[in-house]
Amino acid sequence: MEKFDAIVIGAGHAGCEAGLALARMGNKTLLLTISLDAVAFLACNPSIGGTAKGQLVSEIDALGGEMGIIADKTALQIRMLNRGKGPAVQSLRVQADKNAYHMEMKKALEKEKNLTLRQGEVVDISLDGENKIITTKVGLKYEAKAVVLATGVYLESEIIIGKTREKTGPNGFKNSQGLSSSLQKLGLELMRFKTGTPVRVHRRSVDFSKMEEQVGDDVCGFSYLKKGKIENKEKCYLTYTTSKTHEIIRDNLDKAPAISGEIVGVGPRYCPSIETKVVRFADKDRHQLFLEPEAENTDEMYLQGFSTSMPADIQKEMVESVIGLENAEIMRDAYAIEYDCINPTELNPTLELKKIKGLFFAGQINGTSGYEEAGAQGIVAGINAGLYLQGKEMLVLKRSDAYIGVLIDDIVTKGTNEPYRMMTSRAEYRLKLRQDNADLRLTDIGRRVGLVSDERYNIFLEKKRKMKEIEDKLSTKVKLDDRLIEFYKNHDESVPKESVRYRDMLKRVNIDIFDIKDYFGDFQNYDNDILEKVNINIKYEGYLKQQEEDIEKALLSEKILIPEDFDYLSIKGLRQEAKEKLMKIRPLNIGQASRISGVSPADISVLSIYVKKAKKG
Amino acid sequence: MDSIVSISTPLGTGAISIVRMSGKDSLGIALKFFHTKQKEIKPRYMHFGKLEIENNVFEECLMVYFKAPFSYTGEDIVEFQIHGGVLLAQKVLEVCLKYGCHMAEPGEFSKRAFLNGKITLDKAEAIIGEINAESEAELNSSLQITNGKLAEKVKNEQEKLTELLAEIEVSFDYPEYDYEEIVKEKIFDVIGKISKINKEIIENSKGAIYLKNGINVAIVGRANVGKSSVLNALLGEERAIVTDIEGTTRDSLKESFMHKGIKINLIDTAGIRETQDVVEKLGIERSLSSIDRADLVLFVRDGSVQETEEDLKLEKKINGKVVINLINKSDKPRKIKHKENELEISALTMKNIEVLKDKIVEEIIGKGIDTNALVLTNERQLNILNKCDEWMQKILNAKDLSVDVIAMLVKNLWNELGKITGNTENEDIITLIFSKFCLGK
Q1: B408 to chain A: which residues are within 8 Å by CB?
Q2: In b/e form, how buried is each residue of B243-254, taking b as 16+ CB within 10 angstroms?
Q3: Is A559-616 CATH 1.10.1760.20?
């Protein structure tokens, strides 16, 4: 039996980050995948990032992960979403070349010296004391003290197209059979979730003249390692369904498994099938669709917004009723997929299973959705498996540290009854958790756990140094003369009465640091993205400070730790519902306890009294 | 820890109220508005001085300072002993809040006492039940304790905000979808409207809460039915504890007295009768308008005689008011027929006078009301609404800022309102996003 420090099961977006993190922290790591051809496969839309997800990617990058680097490298188009709505809600999204993405990630894994990448389907996990024994379908056994499960949507998955049900993984890949029941034997409860993917059509069959072009923006990518802008090589297209589409759907609802009740898995509200949209929003006479390139070396195009599990012949009729797709050649059918996942409330915020030490879970197996959510959990699970092996305290990112912290706290504290998607609305401190400052928030943490390379760290230190320089320079006073008056007048601002510092100028709504740079000729030696960061910090100073205060307040209750074996049942003042919820979730601290639904502020005040009492002995 | 404050005596029932602060800043806060001639504040000594409860409005009181750790909570405590009466205690509370204290949560003094090792777990356990019951009530039905319409209004306020937030958030999370994108103007429009309602609620709670200003009662009846003796019977010995606090409207009031901590103002309506005299007519008009302003009318009839024409005419004049029909002179045989919501009294023998006082309070404020809880809850809620008002002014002043910051302020406002409605689940906003907007990949 071959022995490793750690084994990662699954080489999707979570598994790859977990495997790389473990290996980079110096652990001899085995990464097992059902198919080497499915490594980091973009099974659904060919894009990385998006609102809130873009923040996740940059956070993964700041911690020393791979997703951002590869997304930048394989980008076909890049956009900065929510421009004009303020820095707090801006997010990057790239259209990635799905073939290149898979190949580049596979290469990165192959290059990693402590990592063994191997094809093999895991059918059983058993425990031997602290060690976990992994058995593959062909009877090979491996042993490791730490294991990360990142099986994605593969567990006992089934693909549904109309009446056709097939026990396979996404895109016709093999599914995972047997591992589910092995997890049940370990005492885990499983849930059944559902998601879906739309049709792919041939580029030559599309009438682009009837669609609206969507071009990219002139911006930098996710990774703090990459310098310079991302090249926009491809375009996306916007089109619409027609009343005919809706008619076809309505006429065939009895054949839609999602509507007729044949699909039992719980689907996500934010990603409904087109038939669900037509039924639920009957008053809308058209729905928006985007056509996106799948890769540079193929003519396949992804029809975003058109996920369905209708029978294939109906799908064809539906697609042909879309504007510009009248003659569309469908290359792949849309399908719904059902799969097993665990209840994430079985996990600690470290992503370690509460019941079994050294067993970690990441990605869609935890009931989330999305590549970025998976990657985010993957890197955290990898880091914590590594820290576990080192016998060190594990990493829990706070809600005020990162979107990753919000994501993990949400799922392990509240659980989820649909595939969980990250949204900016879920983050309470988003003025702090911006796309542009993930490195400032997380690089030090990544460095501490050993994931941030010297190269990355030096870039980071250099940037901090420059920011300091710029901030110092902002104290430069400009004396009140005609030139200054003209500057204020140019920007429709009332003229100051005495000499002002650059910093004061920035407090004016219509003046930013680039105006100062252009007019006074200062700050010429700094990159725009660094200037922009300082600009945001000054412009939003008051609000950032207020948010910091809110965070400080919230952190007070995060600091009151609840002992692991705390006896909730013995507390007289707690309501029964609260006791049950607390027993189940076993929050690490009072702050987490207060976010459990069904635990009231009154319960919390009672609980804090007892927790403090218990500490005093 | 922040300094906290609460009124620690049952309101209005005694001649003295105590307002108590606890926390390391409590002495500092106290000295901002308590002025004494004594040179030094000595722990555990009474200090006579004056409280500045409003600009240049002073109230004499006694102050005691307990220095940590020798106090109930183990923190610095300052206690003001002030004259009894709801309004005054509340004023002092408001001043403490204004200078930086937080309203104490139910049981918070005891909680602090426990945490500082001043009371045992046994004792703490005894109060836990109370903490639980009280704050449970606050969450589930705190608003029902007060007036139902107010509750509805605050809930509406928050619901409107939830919708607004859903619209803002959807534009952040789904920037590419073809719904009508929210524009800043709409945000300011909605906030402006809510702000108006909020201000109204604050005003109403502040101005119209009977606990503060008392209940205005008009005694109505034709001549010789015993109005004056009813008035005197009601005032009786209570006259001694009538509080005369500045700022109370006293026009056309004859007398006030306290009952169960609530001030009852008796309005003089003597002399309402048919007349041709011009001067007298004016006086009558005034009296009638003071009836209009009354929260409650005591309609006095002579029970020993039959109802007269004049009685019936008067009855029409008070149509639409909350009325208690007093059948006076019940010491004599009754001749008058039964009236709705009636009470037989005798101003002469004092029969049912105490019952009448209870009835006045019940009619207006409700039965079985715990005036203590009501006032505290109100004060806490009013405090929250005032904070909401601050947030709204901040939002309305943020017209030049980007939407993300405005959204943050709106969310803060929403959270603040949630402290009253008990609804702080972020998931509600997200649910609304998905039910209102058609989204998805």
Answers
A1: 88, 430-431, 543, 547
A2: bebeeeeeebbe
A3: no
Q: Which two tokens stand for residue A405?
A: 């912290």
- Report the number of distinct structural domains present in chain B: 3
Pick A270's closest partner by Cβ from B131, B425, B440.
B440
Shared domain check, B294 and B227: yes
Question: Does residue B128 lie within any of the structural domains?
Answer: no
Instruction: Choose from A141-145, A286-290, A487-491, B320-324 the range with maximum mean pLDDT.
Output: A141-145
pLDDT category at A273 given cuts 50, 70, 90 is confident
Listed residue (A327, A308, A292) closest to A50, CA to CA: A292
B322 and B183 fall within a common domain: no
The CA-based angle A181-A186-A189, given to 5 degrees, is 65
**The domain spanning residue B386 has which CATH number?**
1.20.120.430
DSSP assigned state of A31: E
- Residue B270 confidence (pLDDT): 55
Pairing mode of beta strands B262-267, B296-302: unpaired
Same structural domain, B171 and B221: no
Decide the pairing of beta strands A29-33 and A6-9: parallel
Q: How far apart are CA B211 and CA B206, in angstroms?
A: 10
Amino acid at A411: I
Q: Is the pLDDT of residue A316 over 70?
A: yes
Q: For residues B64 and B49, what is the distance between their CA atoms, to the nearest angstrom? A: 11
Chain B CA closest to residue A426? B426
For residue range B168-189, what is the model confidence (pLDDT) as tens digits?
Answer: 988 898 887 766 667 788 999 9
The residues, ordered by sequence, that sit 6+ positions from A349 with a Cβ below 8 Å of its Cβ are A396, A408, A409, A412, A413, A588, A592
Searching chain B, which residue's CA lies closest to the CA of residue A600?
B136
Q: For A424, which residue in chain B has the nearest alpha carbon? A: B173
* B325 shares its domain with B247: yes
Q: What is the pLDDT of residues A283-303, one digit of tens each?
A: 888 999 999 999 999 999 999
Looking at the structure, do residues B297 and B239 belong to the same domain, yes or no?
yes
Give the distance from residue B42's alpha carbon to the nearest chain A alpha carbon, in angstroms: 32
CATH class of residue range A2-42+100-195+339-418: alpha beta
Give this complex's ipTM. 0.86
Smallest Cβ distance to B178: which of A288, A547, A613? A288
Indicate the range of A153-167, A195-209, B56-70, B139-153 predicted with least confidence.
Answer: B139-153
> Is B143 a domain residue?
no
Indicate the burial class of B224 (C-beta count within 10 angstroms; 0-12, 13-18, 19 or more).
exposed
Residue B126 has a pLDDT of 59
d(CA B379, CA B397): 27
User: How far is it, in rounded angstroms, from Cα A268 to Cα B441?
Assistant: 11
Q: How far is it, in rounded angstroms, from Cα A409 to Cα A595?
A: 9
What class does CATH assign to A197-337?
Answer: mainly beta
Question: What are the helix (H) ranges across B146-297?
Answer: 148-173, 184-208, 210-213, 227-235, 278-293
- The pLDDT of residue A269 is above 90: no
**Do B217 and B315 sit in the same domain of this protein?**
yes
Cβ-defined contact of A572 to B125 (cutoff 8 Å):
yes
Q: What is the CATH number of domain A473-544?
A: 1.10.10.1800
Domain with B379 in it = 149-207+372-436
d(CA A599, CA A582): 8
Measured CA to CA, the distance from residue A171 to residue A335 in angstroms comes to: 9
